[in-house]
Amino acid sequence: MDRDTLKRALENADLTGYEAEAYLTLVDHGRLPAVDVAKKSSVPTSQVYETLRSLEGKGFVETIDQDRLHAEPSDPVNLLTHLRERGELFTDAAEELEDRWEQPDLNEHRVGVVKHTETVLEHVRTQIREAEVAVEVALTAEQFESLRTDLKAAADRDVVIHVAVYYEPDLAARSEEWDLSAPNLEMRVVKIPGPFLAVLDRSRTYFAPNSRAGESYGILINDNILSFINHWYFQTCLWYSWEPLSSNQRLPKTYISLKEFIRDISDVYHGGATVAVTIDGLDVETREFRTVTGTVANIYYPDIFVNHSPSLERLSTYSVVWLDAETEELSIGGWGAVFEDIEAQKITLEAISFDGVDQS
Fold this sequence. Notes:
- This protein is α+β, with helices and mostly antiparallel strands.
- It folds into 3 domains: 76 residues, Winged helix-like DNA-binding domain superfamily/Winged helix DNA-binding domain (Arc Repressor Mutant, subunit A, Orthogonal Bundle), CATH 1.10.10.10; 135 residues, Endonuclease Chain A (Endonuclease, Chain A, 2-Layer Sandwich); 107 residues, Roll (SH3 type barrels), CATH 2.30.30.690.
- It is built from 11 helices and 17 strands.
- The strands form 3 sheets. The protein has a 7-stranded mixed β-sheet, sandwiched between helices. The chain has a 5-stranded mixed beta barrel with strand order 12-13-14-15-16.
- The longest helix has 26 residues.
- This is TrmB family transcriptional regulator.
- Belongs to the transcriptional regulator TrmB family.
- It comes from Halorubrum ejinorense.
- Pfam families: Regulator_TrmB (PF11495), TrmB (PF01978).
């Protein structure tokens, strides 16, 4: 690298033109009187003393007051560290700008690919702040901590939050600092490693591989069908099979999966309980949002059993709940309902009672 290029590099590392010129002169010649620095460089004599003092303040030169001011370059470790940090900063900035430039606009495309997991997390953070119904997310403890504030805020505004966190040896101790008291926030611990996955409001999905992947990338999805497939993966592999980090059996309890609701209440319903629920969802015919309250009038799924809770396999094909809403009986379907009256987005279990006595 020639001297002019090296000087430009130093200027890009926050040295002024005069400072870069004076510093390179001292590196080339060693200790010099200040007046000789001016003679051997393009720094004016009127500016050389101020320039050397400034370099000394930054730790790049040392000055010695003898009969006249002398200066010599300091050990370059500080400057070398500074240059390397600036180089990493510029490289990271270039990669981020490239990533953002190439980043797809999900308002125009259903699927896009980005280069970095951090980009996926930023998208998810933005969408959590705009979520209205539900967030399902599988992540590491570190990733949860980076999104925790936004997830808690969403739960506080009545968004249902399901968090599947991957097990780590220090998870129990780490989670003691987490506030999981929001009634709409539930966390379960997954004992096998897996990818980062977030499904938001049944329409957007974000995916990134875990640290075992050979390369870093992320997938952004704006599509209901693909989001349903990822929702089903979340439910079957990352949710149903695992225990809550902290048990919350209080009512009311809100579900975002009709199948999970049926699994939990089928046994008590067939045992004679009155099950009161509120359904928030879409009218299948008009696609308008509806909220209805009533009691479960019937439950159906193929090969129905009435003496125990159904397995996920038994519920995987078709299931429906009938709701006695006083003035009408409505059929309630799950995600993607076609033939039912309402496609349930949230099912809130309000109360369970036997012979008029509420159970909690």
